[in-house]
Amino acid sequence: QIARTIARALRLNEDLTEAIALGHDLGHTPYGHAGERALNRLCPGGFTHYRQSLRVVDYLEKDGKGLNLCWEVRNGIITHTKGAWARTLEGCTVRYADHIAFLNHDIEDAVAAGVLNPTALPRDAVQVLGDTKSRRITTMITDLVANSANCKNGKMQFSPEVEEAYGV
């Protein structure tokens, strides 16, 4: 939903954005990143969920025939986490949306588990991003859209203030 919202605001291809967003985490292991680290130690050549996501759509779906996905979707899936950025703005949108989502879900999960007291969040970051999950998500989406409104030049970005508060 975050990726589609950003794509719509920037007048990008919403269907392409959603296809990348739906496929980008298919390769996650049980137990999240801890499971990924364990498999990375065990598998010859290592293991990453984004490469596994591509294997799922290329080879495992449709009884081993794979999905006939365009290059843009496949590129967005393989580049959504780290390293090289996607070659499309839609792929970059999914990467930003993923960061917005997991930052806020991680905070929410830590608070719910009693591991983090919301008052322990850095005051400067709270002042810039907001003091609730909803405010942080809204701030980050609004800021990204405002600072990427001219993204036809191929670049999306947060403002320096949000980038610093987020710790990008």
From TrEMBL:
GO terms for molecular function: hydrolase activity. PROSITE patterns: HD. Residues 1-103 form the HD domain. InterPro entries: HD_domain (IPR006674). Keywords: Hydrolase. This is Deoxyguanosinetriphosphate triphosphohydrolase-like protein. It comes from human gut metagenome.
